[in-house]
RNA sequence: GCUCCGGUGGUGUAGCCCGGCCAAGCAUAGGGGCCUUUCGAGCCCCAGACCCGGGUUCAAAUCCCGGCCGGAGCACCA
């Protein structure tokens, strides 16, 4: 981390800052070395591109300020949480943070500490009891609809003025399992006529009758979001808590909880949400598509989960650059895939080896070939070359190219020869090596050696609901490709190897 | 209905808090050119925008008022 940037960010004269830095404005009340931020995902599904912002914004600030960054699992609704999601989050977040270290020099590229909220449950029960004893919380046994309508009308229910002893007794019963789910909850006593709805005696603990992925049925009373987030942030030393802006109305509730408990307060900062152009991003939309078998699980390359994007060949580096340039802005951002693809191209272009892949292959016989061998550069910026052996003087070319050829036209078979078109038949093309080999400005097309080519399939995701599968041949060296390799298929686009047997690539973008 | 955010080139956005350095930045898509025995890539260039109406001011994308349009939130989920 360059020292001068840190100084600029921390400095008070923000107007002197350069445009580049403006996207990451200094944090209020932030002292270098003392900032603690966190990301707090609920392990209720696979992280999506939306989570990337929630991860990167606090991470970038933590590193810019030489502070600490925490990963906290908000596992307080066991009904929807699963162990596999904890792991998916760890995996995908790691990939992103490691990339942030490589791309932006924000080091170390990992979280400094992991916190699992459910381990704090006993502590949270203590705090709940404290609130009850102070007369700031009461157990309400009204049915949900009644609570809703009273809240709307600004009416107080009969439980609100129960004596402390009664509340303590009911609270014990909640903990001991004498109430069923939905029969009782603990509410904060604030003001039932408060203009901010979320402030009208919000529920802070409720019963969830489902096994917890870590603790099984050890607990059945869980805190709600407002209680857990404020208490946890305070307890774990967070100085600047980021969340997406739909939580703005909750700031007041959370501050109230902290004040009543006498816990340390901290900065709460909201940022805009991420959506993706034309692609359903929310789990609500994706889940049915998976169930219906339209999508191949949460890592389907058409799904904007991090796993899906990675599988499609969108690199963590590109995502990091993208979000770094997007900044911590409060406005909702719509990502268009083209921009992300452009970012990815910048990452891949300098490193991805080039290969020739021929979709819809057509045989082309080449007359006059003297050497049954071609040499092609692995990458235009590199010296190393790859030799392609031909078993006979014939190659495959793409049907689309074959159709565009006219008799007498000259084209270049990349790395092999410049040829003149003699005849284009329905299933065979006849070519002849030209007299003049160096002709500038002619079309260069890719090919694969007939009889020695590698069968390759390329999946091209076209929408969240569909894809096209291109079948064809690649040059022999493609046999050596391994799952996860990124390549550029000449004149087609960048692609990632998805499986080796059969060799299948997923097209990332052109 | 209530509350809170927004409306900037074709698209996605920066700038707005703290008015002048903004005849508005970036990216993407578009047009043109260059390179070429890699490429549908890259490089260079071009064109293109402050929702509307009032007000304040020497000066408004930026502040104020009104309108129109769009989004989000209003759980015993997070």
Jot down its keywords.
510 residues, alpha/beta, Glutamyl-tRNA Synthetase, domain 3, Ribosomal Protein L25, Chain P, seven-stranded mixed sheet, 27 strands, RNA-binding
Task: Give a brief description.
Helix 3 (49-64) crosses helix 4 (83-104). This protein has 14 helices and 27 strands.
Helix content: 25-40%
Can you tell me the overall shape?
elongated
From the helix content, strand content and strand pairing, which structural class follows?
A: alpha/beta
Q: Summarize model confidence as the mean pLDDT.
A: 86
Strand order, largest beta sheet: 12-25-26-27-23-24-13
Number of helices: 14
Cα Rg: 30 Å
CATH fold node name of the domain at 351-510? Ribosomal Protein L25, Chain P
Explain how this protein is built.
With 510 residues, the protein is α/β, with parallel strands linked by helices. Among the domains are: 121-225, Glutamyl-tRNA Synthetase, Domain 3 (Glutamyl-tRNA Synthetase, domain 3, Alpha-Beta Complex), CATH 3.90.800.10; 351-510, Ribosomal Protein L25, Chain P. 30% of the residues lie in helices and 26% in strands. It has 14 helices and 27 strands. The protein has a 7-stranded mixed beta sheet, with helices on one face. Strands 21-18-19-20-14-17-22 form a 7-stranded mixed beta sheet. It has a 4-stranded antiparallel beta sheet with strand order 4-5-6-7. Strand 8 (240-244), helix 9 (250-261) and strand 9 form a beta-alpha-beta unit. It is elongated, with a radius of gyration of 30 Å. The two termini are 34 Å apart. It binds one RNA strand of 78 nucleotides through helix 6, strand 5, strand 6, helix 8 and strand 11.
């Amino acid at each position: 981390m360059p020292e001068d940037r840190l100084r600029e960010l921390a400095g008070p004269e923000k107007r002197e800052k350069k445009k580049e830095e403006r996207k990451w404005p200094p944090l209020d009340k932030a002292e270098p070395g003392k900032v603690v931020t966190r990301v707090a995902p609920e392990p209720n599904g696979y992280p999506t591109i939306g989570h990337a912002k929630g991860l990167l914004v606090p991470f970038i600030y933590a590193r810019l300020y030489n502070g600490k960054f925490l990963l906290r699992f908000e596992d307080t609704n066991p009904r929807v949480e699963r162990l596999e999601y904890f792991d998916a989050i760890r995996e995908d977040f790691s990939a992103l943070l490691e990339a942030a270290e490589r791309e932006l020099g924000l080091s170390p590229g990992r979280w400094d500490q992991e916190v699992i909220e459910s381990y704090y449950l006993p502590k949270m029960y203590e705090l709940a009891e404290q609130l009850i004893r102070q007369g700031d919380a009461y157990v309400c046994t009204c049915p949900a609809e009644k609570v809703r309508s009273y809240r709307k009308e600004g009416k107080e229910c009969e439980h609100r003025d129960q004596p402390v002893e009664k509340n303590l007794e009911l609270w014990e019963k909640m903990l001991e399992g004498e109430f069923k789910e939905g029969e009782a909850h603990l509410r904060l006593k604030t003001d039932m006529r408060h203009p901010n709805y979320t402030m009208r005696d919000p529920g802070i603990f409720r019963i969830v009758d489902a096994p917890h992925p870590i603790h099984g049925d050890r607990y059945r009373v869980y805190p709600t979001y407002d209680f857990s987030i404020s208490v946890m942030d305070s307890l774990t030393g967070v100085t600047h808590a980021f969340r997406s802006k739909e939580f703005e109305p909750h700031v007041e509730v959370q501050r109230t909880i902290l004040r009543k408990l006498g816990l340390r307060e901290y900065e709460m900062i909201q940022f805009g949400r991420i959506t993706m152009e034309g692609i359903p991003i929310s789990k609500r939309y994706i889940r049915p598509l998976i169930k219906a078998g339209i999508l191949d699980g949460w890592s389907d390359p058409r799904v904007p989960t991090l796993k899906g994007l990675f599988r499609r060949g969108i690199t963590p580096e590109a995502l990091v650059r993208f979000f770094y340039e997007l900044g911590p802005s409060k406005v909702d951002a719509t990502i268009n895939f083209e921009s992300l693809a452009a970012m990815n191209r910048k990452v891949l272009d300098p490193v991805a080896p080039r290969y020739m892949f021929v979709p819809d292959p057509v045989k082309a016989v080449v007359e006059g070939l003297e050497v049954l061998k071609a040499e092609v550069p692995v990458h235009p910026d590199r010296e190393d070359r790859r030799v392609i052996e031909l078993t006979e003087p014939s190659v495959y070319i793409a049907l689309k190219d074959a159709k565009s050829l006219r008799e007498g036209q000259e084209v270049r078979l990349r790395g092999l020869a410049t040829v003149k078109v003699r005849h284009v038949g329905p299933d065979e093309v006849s070519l002849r090596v030209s007299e003049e080999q160096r002709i500038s400005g002619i079309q260069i097309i890719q090919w694969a050696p007939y009889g020695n080519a590698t069968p390759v399939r390329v999946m091209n995701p076209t929408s969240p609901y569909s894809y096209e599968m291109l079948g064809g041949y690649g040059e022999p060296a493609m046999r050596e490709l391994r799952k996860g390799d990124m390549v550029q298929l000449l004149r087609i686009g960048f692609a990632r190897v998805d499986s080796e047997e059969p060799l299948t690539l997923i097209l990332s973008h052109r």
